[in-house]
Amino acid sequence: MVKPKEVTRVQELVYELKIGDVMTKRVVTVTPDTTMAEFKEVLRVNRISGTPVVEEGRLVGIISLEDLIKALLAGHIEVPVRDRMSREVFTVRAHESVVEAVKVFSQKGVGRLPVVDEHGNLVGIITQGDITHGLLKAIELDYHAEEISRYRASHIFEDIVSDRTSLLLRYKVSARDFTRGGEAASNIKRALTRLGGNPQTVRRVAIATYEAEMNIIIHTDHGGEIVAEIQPEQVRILAVDHGPGIADIEQAMQPGFSTAPEWIREMGFGAGVGLNNIQKCADEMHLESTLGVGTRLQIVVYLQPGESGLMEGDDEASRSCC
Amino acid sequence: MMKLREVVAELGLEVAVAADALDREISGGYASDLLSCVMARARAGNVWVTLQSHPNIVAVASLLNLSGIIVTEGVSLDPATIEKADEENIPLLTTPLTTFTVVGKLAALGIQGVD
C-alpha cells in the first residue's frame, strides 16, 4: 500500500554533487621532514586542523591537530612529521559522488580526506564541513530556482492585456464522494499560493471552500460545482448545487444546527458549524436557496494588492464594474 | 519547539505514513473528532489527535498544513487514508491509547493548545 519513501532533496544532492564540486582545491600540505613545531605554525596560520603529507608530489601520509596534541603531551615537538603522521591514508576521487566521502567519514571516523585524480595526484581535500557547505549552497540555488518559478507564475498575467483579467477555476463535486472531499479546496489553495497569496488569506479561502465543498458532498442529491474566480482584488467562490435546497436559511446558519444523518456524523461531519466557519473566513457571504431547486452560495475574500498576481484595472470604472 | 519524531519516541506511537516528515516542529496541539471544528481552530504546524480514520482527515490536515495526525484507540486505518497521507506527505501516527491520555502526555511534554 505504502509507496517507497520519497527521498529528501538532501539525499538526492549527496548523490548528485561531485566531490570535486565541494572540496577545497587549495590544499595546504607539509612534507615528512617538516617538524611538529613548524606543523603547529602551518595549522595556526591557515586556521586548519590537519594536512596531507606529500613527498615529491606523492601522498605519503596525513597529520592532524590530534597528532600534534599527542606530540606536545609527549614532548616530541621537534620531531619530524614522518614520526607522528598516519601512514594509512583513505582517499576519495574528485569525480565520485559526495555520498562516497560521507560513507568513508562515517566508517573510518577521519576528519578529512585527501582527494586524488585518476593518476593518484593530490587535487584537493574534503572535510565534513565542506560537504555541509556544499549542500547548503546547492539547496540555496534550488530555493532561488523555486522563487523564480513562483515569480513567473505570479507574473503570468502581466503580458495579458484586458480591461479586467480574472482566472476561473471550475471543479465538479459529486454527492457522497467522501474520498475526494477537499480536493477542490486543496487545488484552489495551491493555485492561490502559486500566484503569491499570503498564507493567512489562502487559509481563509481554503477553509471556506472546504466547508462549501463538503456541504455539496454531504447534503446534495446530485452533487454540484465549485467555481473560484480569482480577480485582482478578491477571490470569489461560487458553490452551486441542484437540490434538495435549504428549508430555513436562518436556522441553517445557527451554530450546531444540523440535518446530517447519523452515519455522516459518525465520520466527523455534520457538526453544524460549516456555514459559520465560512462566515468567519469570508469578507462577504451570500446564501440563496430554494427547496426542491438548489442552493447557491457565494463567498468573497478580499485580496491585498499583488496577492492574486493579476494586474489591477487602470481606472476606477474598471474596478467598480463588479 | 518539539519535533514530531520526539513525540513518536516519547509516546511510543506507531508511524503508519510519512516517516520522512517527522522532523517538523510542532507548533501546538488540537484534539477533536469533528472536522469542521478542526478546520476552524487548528493552526498550521499543530499535531491533531482524533479517533477518526477516514481519508478526509488527511484533506483537513493538508489544507491546514498540520504537522501530523495521531489516530487513537487503536482504530484501524482505512487503506485510502494511508494512500492519501502518503501522497500528501502527512505523518499519520497510531496508538492504542485514548485521546484523553494522548493529550495528557502531549501536554506533559510542553505542547500547548491553541487557546
Describe this structure in words.
The complex is a heterodimer of chains A (322) and B (115). Chain A has 322 residues and is an alpha+beta fold. Chain A folds into two domains: 9-134, CBS-domain; 167-320, Heat Shock Protein 90. Chain A has helices at 9-16, 19-22, 36-46, 65-74, 98-108, 128-154, 183-195, 199-219, 249-252, 262-265, 274-281, 316-320; strands spanning 50-55, 58-64, 92-93, 112-116, 122-127, 167-173, 224-230, 234-241, 284-290, 294-302. In chain A, a hairpin with a 5-residue loop joins strand 4 and strand 5 (122-127). In chain A, helix 7 runs antiparallel to helix 8 (199-219) and helix 8 runs antiparallel to helix 11 (274-281). Chain A starts with 8 loop residues before the first helix and ends with a helix. Chain B has a five-stranded mixed sheet with strand order 1-5-4-3-2, with helices on both faces. In chain B, helix 3 (56-64) packs parallel to helix 4 (79-88). The two termini of chain B are 17 Å apart. Classes of the chains: A alpha+beta (322), B alpha/beta (115).
